[in-house]
């Protein structure tokens, strides 16, 4: 599951790690449809918007929040683009965006390369499989759009980032990770 609406949420925006849920995001979480009965545990990204979503879901459903994992954090965007929209990002970043699939090992400044993101998603998948062996029920993962899409499209390799960048994923939409 993707986190709820956070401060600054809009297309093309790279949110800072500490972006909190908005009042709308908290309301959205509190009024979310019931979780499927088979879900008996929650794991979350450590980023504030995901942690807040997971904590609220746990409090309203009684499903325990059992772990946070940095493997589930969003793609690490370069610090020079955090808090910016596509209109205000550096031109050199936009050039990198157009070239990134040709060299998935190349990161922009202090950001995460597509290869590293894919490798982290593979490690997250292994972590989640391990966590899911501990119970007969299913695990709900509260994460972020890009990481969630890469996680559910691992077979695409680093190119899964492109799938993630053009997809939509609504807050209450559950995706299955195999």
Description:
There is one protein chain. With 178 residues, the protein is mostly helical. Helices cover 37% and strands 8% of the residues. It is built from 6 helices and 3 strands; from the N terminus they run H-E-H-E-H-H-E-H-H. It has a 3-stranded parallel β-sheet with strand order 2-1-3, sandwiched between helices. Helix 2 links the parallel strand 1 and strand 2 (65-68). Helix 4 crosses helix 5 and helix 5 (145-152) crosses helix 6 (160-166). The radius of gyration is 16 Å and the shape is globular.
- Main sheet specs: 3 strands, parallel
Please compute the radius of gyration using only Cα atoms: 16 Å
Q: Order of strands across the widest beta sheet?
A: 2-1-3
End-to-end C-alpha gap? 14 Å
Average pLDDT over all residues:
91
Count of discrete alpha- or pi-helical segments spanning 4 or more residues: 6
What are the low-pLDDT stretches, counting only 5+ consecutive residues below 50?
Answer: none
Give the SSE order as H and E letters: HEHEHHEHH
Assembly form of the protein: single chain
Gross morphology is: globular
What's the layout of helices and strands?
Blueprint: H1 23-30, E1 39-44, H2 48-61, E2 65-68, H3 91-99, H4 114-132, E3 138-142, H5 145-152, H6 160-166
Parallel strand pairs: 1-2, 1-3
């Amino acid at each position: 599951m993707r986190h709820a609406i956070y401060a600054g949420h809009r297309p093309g925006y790279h949110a800072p790690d500490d972006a909190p849920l908005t009042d709308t995001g908290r309301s959205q979480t509190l009024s979310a449809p019931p979780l499927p009965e088979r879900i008996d545990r929650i794991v979350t990204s450590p980023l504030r918007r995901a942690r807040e979503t997971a904590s609220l879901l746990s409090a309203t459903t009684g499903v325990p929040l059992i772990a946070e994992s940095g493997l589930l954090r969003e793609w690490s965007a370069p610090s020079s683009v955090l808090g910016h929209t596509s209109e205000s990002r550096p031109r050199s970043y936009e050039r990198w965006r157009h070239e990134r699939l040709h060299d998935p090992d190349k990161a922009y400044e202090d950001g995460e390369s597509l290869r590293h993101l894919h490798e982290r998603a593979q490690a997250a998948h292994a972590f989640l499989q391990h966590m899911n062996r501990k119970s007969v029920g299913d695990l709900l993962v509260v994460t972020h759009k890009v990481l969630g899409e890469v996680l559910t499209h691992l077979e695409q390799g680093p190119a899964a980032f492109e799938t993630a960048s053009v997809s939509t994923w609504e807050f209450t939409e559950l995706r299955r990770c195999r």
